Amino acid sequence: MLxxxxxxxxxxxDSTYPMEQVVRDAIRxxxxxxxxxxxxxxxxxxxxDQPRGARFExxxxxxxxxxxxxxxxLDRMRERYGTQVRMARGLELGxxxxxxxxxxxxxxxxxxxLDFTLLSIHQVGDREFWDGAFQEGRxxxxxxxxxxxELLGVVERFRGYSVxxxxxxxxxxxxxxxxxLPFSFVRGIVAEILSRVIADGRGIEVNTSGWRYxxxxxxxxxxxxxxxxxxxxxxxxxxxxxxxxxHLGAYLRVAQDLLRTVGFLQACTFERGEPRFYxx
Length: 280
Known about the structure:
The protein is built from 8 helices and 13 strands. By secondary structure, it is an alpha/beta fold. A hairpin with a 2-residue loop joins β3 (56-57) and β4. It starts with a strand and ends with a strand. The model has no long low-confidence stretch (mean pLDDT 96).
């Protein structure tokens, strides 16, 4: 079983990969299943139908996924190619504590059409990681802990997700010479986050883009995966975080081998919000 549960198409603001081409490439590369997880980042992006205040790139407003168009095209792809590859309907939710109500409204409207939702922390206080705005003016210890404190605050208040994506994402955006802080520095708060995730019947993702970004392994690290296992966590998905053809399905088999080494025997796909376990 090879399932890629973190896939972006041109319905995400940071991708130009047409959905039908994604599906054809998935079939060509022998994926059994994929889940489209288009971006939603309330607080820093408005919805597609209310673009006032959006920043512009290449003359176009940067907005959240146009949900009706995305879901309608995905339904057409499922009808056309569904006998060759299973396609799940998902979103990647870039949640912050102050934007939780917006996501609750979104899921009230569209949740019945979704199979899967990723919970990501892409910014805190509407300050982005990718451009360094969040890290600016903070020490390494301060921005690292602020990231995990925000994630803990979100999982304590929000239930509308299936798994936490790239749980230690801040490592990717840590500009400190010498690299991110050792796991021992954050182990306590990570354990709090994972305990809440497990208690709520949710899971975590193994995001293979860590190899692509030169981190030497997936996100989260094996330290986090072992802690999750030791705390009783079972729900795990694998995703490439693909935005381009060369990303799709990348390192999934490597990640499966790593999960087995860590002690997991199964991973998950999802259907209508419910995990479906398969053997690794």
